[in-house]
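Researcher: Dear colleague, please comment on this protein.
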Amino acid sequence: MPDNIQDKIDIYYSSLSKGQKKIADYIVQNYEKASFMTAADLGKVTGVSESTVVRFASRIGFDGYPDFQKNLQETVKSRLTSVQRMDVASGIDDGDILENAFARDIEMIKKMRDSISREDFAGSVKAINSAKKIYILGVRSSSSLAGFAAFYMSYIYDVVLVNTSASSEMFEQMFHITQDDLCIAVSFPRYSNRTINALKFARSRGAKIISITDGELSPIAKYATHLLVAPSSMVSFVDSLVAPLSLINALIAAASREKKDEVHARFEDLERLWDEYNVYSITGEEKH
C-alpha cells in the first residue's frame, strides 16, 4: 500500500468508528481492488453505508472520497501487472460489463472536462502552431493515440511520428530536435521507460513538451511545458483510453481552427488529389 495512505490509517485508526475500521482493514488487505471501487461498492463489500465510506475518507485527512481514491489510484495503477489487473477487474465488474464499460468512459470524459487546465490547453495549442517541427511519441498501448494524433496533424504540420520499437531508433529520429520544435508525448500506465528517456533528451535540447498522461504523479508530467491530464479507466488487463482520445481530438480541432484558411486550402488540394487517384469509395457508385 502507498506509504502516505498507510500512515494516515495508522495515525487515525484508534479514533475510527467500528464501521470505519472495517473499511480501513479491507483497504489495507485489498488496496488494489479498493482503489477502483466507488464509495458505494466499497460500502457494499465491507457491510457499511456509502456515507460511512465518505466520512472515513474525510476522517483520515482527505478532501472526500474522490480525493482519497485519486491518491490511491495514481500510485496503484502503475504497479499492477496484467494478471493483477484482471483480478481487480473481476472483483469490481460483477454486473453488465458493457454497461459498466460505457459508464466508466462517460465518467472519465466528464471528469476530464471539469478538471483539465484551460491554461495548459491554450498553451498547447499555441505551442503546436508555433513549432517548426512536431515530434509525436507514444509507446505500447499509447502508440495508438500517438499514431492517431500524427495521422491528422500531418495534414497541417511538419510531423515526425517517432518509431518506438527500439530506444536507439527513437534517439536517432529525435537527434535533430531543437528549441524551435515541439514534442508531444503520450503515456499511460504502465509507463514506459523509453518515453521517459526520450523526454529527458528532448528537454536537454530545449524543445517544448506537451505531456498527455493520467495525472500529475505520472513520470512524464515533470518534463511537461504544458501538462494535459486525461484520466484513464481500467477494464480487465487493458486501459480505456477514450478520454485521452477525446482530448487529442479537441487539441487538433482547436489548433487547426487558428489556421483555418491554410487548412481549408490544404484540404481542397487533397480532395482533388484523392478524387484523381480514386482513393475513397463513394457509396452507391460502382467503380470500373
About this structure: The chain has a mean pLDDT of 88.
